[in-house]
Design a protein that fits this description.
The protein is of the alpha+beta class. 28% of the residues lie in helices and 32% in strands. The strands form 2 sheets. It has a 6-stranded antiparallel β-sheet with strand order 5-6-1-7-8-9. Strands 3-2-4 form a 3-stranded antiparallel β-sheet, covered by helices on one side.
């Protein structure tokens, strides 16, 4: 059996303690109840609602098509220091060693840019890999995040679009 991975690692530069404190609050665990009430862990019993980061709970409330139980964690790991092999920079390190959700990372960063840097932008690239060399199991993609939009590209969709524009190959004509 093979394992599939979606991996990424990017830094979001921070300029102030206020930005760091705001991000810590957004990444803090809350409970989203069925009646759309957001409770802190101290105010709730662990058996009520879905436990998830505050930024995802708030996103679920603003989008009726979002099911928060599909996202009961951030979808990525994080830290407030760069990995040691990359120097001693400060910021929010957003990464996934095995299986991450770049869309959730984009949501958090967009919310950050809306509040702290409305003209700024941030990028994230990811690799979709497999522990065995299986055909069709490797890919990748990228996000470009601004305060107004999240642009998404993935290798599979790009190839599919290009293939539909090509004439049929000799093998396909038979």
């Amino acid at each position: 059996m093979a394992n599939n991975y979606q991996q990424f690692s990017e830094m979001l530069d921070l300029r102030s303690e206020e930005e760091e404190n705001w991000l810590r609050a957004q990444l803090a665990e809350v409970f989203l109840l069925e009646d759309n009430t957001i409770l802190s862990p101290e105010d709730s019993h662990s058996d009520t609602g879905c436990s998830l980061p505050r930024f995802l709970a708030e996103a679920a409330l603003s989008d009726p098509h979002t099911n928060p139980e599909d996202n009961c964690d951030a979808g990525f790991e994080h830290g407030f220091e760069a990995p040691k092999e990359q120097g001693d920079g400060r910021g929010l390190w957003i990464y996934a060693e095995e299986s991450g959700n770049p869309d959730n990372a984009g949501l958090l960063v967009q919310k950050f840019l809306q509040r702290f840097d409305p003209t700024g932008w941030w990028t994230l690239t990811w690799a979709a890999t497999c522990s065995k060399p299986r055909c069709g199991e490797f890919s990748g993609g990228a996000l470009l995040v601004t305060a107004k939009e999240i642009l998404f590209a993935d290798a599979g969709s790009w190839l599919e679009e290009r293939q539909t524009a090509l004439p049929l190959s000799p093998k396909q004509r038979r």
